[in-house]
Automatic annotation (TrEMBL):
Organism name: Dysgonomonas mossii DSM 22836
The protein's name: Uncharacterized protein
Domain of life, source organism: Bacteria
C-alpha cells in the first residue's frame, strides 16, 4: 500500500512506530508542542500547537477516568 501524505508525516509516523530513542517519541512531540505554543504566542502555529496539546491532555484525562472505573 502506498503512503499518502507529506514526507514529514511519514517520518513522524515511522518514528512513533519504531520508538528507537531513549525518550518516547510522543513525549518529545508533546514537549515540543508545549514549547512552541508558549514561545510563539499570537501565531497560527501556536494556536494549532495549543489545540493539539489540549486534545492530548483531554484524551489522557479520559483514559485515566476509564482506568479508575
Amino acid at each position: 500500500m502506498e503512503f499518502k501524505g507529506t514526507k514529514a508525516k511519514k517520518v513522524i509516523l515511522e518514528e512513533l512506530e519504531e520508538q528507537g530513542h531513549p525518550e518516547r517519541v510522543e513525549d518529545v512531540i508533546f514537549w515540543a508542542l508545549e514549547y512552541y505554543c508558549e514561545h510563539n504566542k499570537g501565531t497560527h502555529g501556536s494556536a494549532i500547537a495549543y489545540y493539539i496539546k489540549e486534545r492530548i491532555l483531554e484524551e489522557e484525562a479520559l483514559g485515566k477516568e476509564a482506568d479508575d472505573e
